């Protein structure tokens, strides 16, 4: 599968037309999607018409953007004008917005051609992509297993070559755990790096939009497109997103790495995940890093995150629960009802803890350059489950327990990069999570590039012919 830069170069040199590229991706979707179920809304006629317009622009010699003519798919929680956007909920099954969200508008302005929408859990809530409208997205490496979530459709689409450009969002790991499950790259940026517009919570920096890619370079290039300040974002970072257009690998000699495979004892980790992650200590040492077992102090992060999440959901979905309770999944109802009982003191205490976590992270990165942890605590689990019942023999009692390795880091406000680390003996992907200091995306991506060059795990792709055969028999 060619990178963003390679495909863009072929279009610019007119070796391949945008129409040919889009057509090839539509054929791939027809062959693979019946098995994987990553793309849930498709508009081939519009995509081909936009591809023809992209080809005409090249023929005229027009100035074009970095994604010109490239096939993209949009997370189904993000509005795309004229395209059904369901949020994975029957309550929005017929919703067709009139305008693009900012992240979609920026991708289109850079020349991307939107093929369709990628699957999500209901209202994007949960680490497993499944809903009553479209069913589950299946893991490209084993369709009997989960692709992760909530950006599971995007990760599976990238892993199978059904789209070249995909974005997502991340509250508690929604870019990072599907990247781990599907052997791709996902970046949770610093709050404000990619403005979330429109949103009711412009001052609350838990949910962020961010890029995914098959490589670190693809991910960085997409970040250069969707990042950048906007007057509608009160937390927007006033920095030039062009800094991500081209990133060289970093020299890691002397890099101070805090090794935190269980976040200092805060999370349970599957032994298979731990084995793959631990093997990467050698990779980092070979690259010249100084590795010590050390972690940010995450005390209080779990309770504070759950409080702020439940409070947010109770505000956003309380009316939906009261009027359409029978159409919503039980775990979502539970989470909303948890928020109903919160007091102002509960919320204030959670925000205070969030501030303390920010400062603990800031102090950690005065001693270390990088924190390394798993991108997901477990390997992909059976697709019929909402979450794994156990991790390392420890019961997981809610749909939130198992994603703590993601949301504890969310609470610090630090950027986090998930990228392929290796495979279990049974052939399941495992991802590594690199966490950098506040607003340190550029350095984080440079480190990721170096690690990626030293570790070939990201080159191992799913068996597409086998997926196509399964799709035919589905």
TrEMBL record:
<dbReference type="InterPro" id="IPR036928">
    <property type="entry name" value="AS_sf"/>
</dbReference>
<dbReference type="InterPro" id="IPR023631">
    <property type="entry name" value="Amidase_dom"/>
</dbReference>
<protein>
    <submittedName>
        <fullName>Amidase</fullName>
    </submittedName>
</protein>
<dbReference type="InterPro" id="IPR000120">
    <property type="entry name" value="Amidase"/>
</dbReference>
<dbReference type="Pfam" id="PF01425">
    <property type="entry name" value="Amidase"/>
</dbReference>
<feature type="domain" description="Amidase">
    <location>
        <begin position="20"/>
        <end position="445"/>
    </location>
</feature>
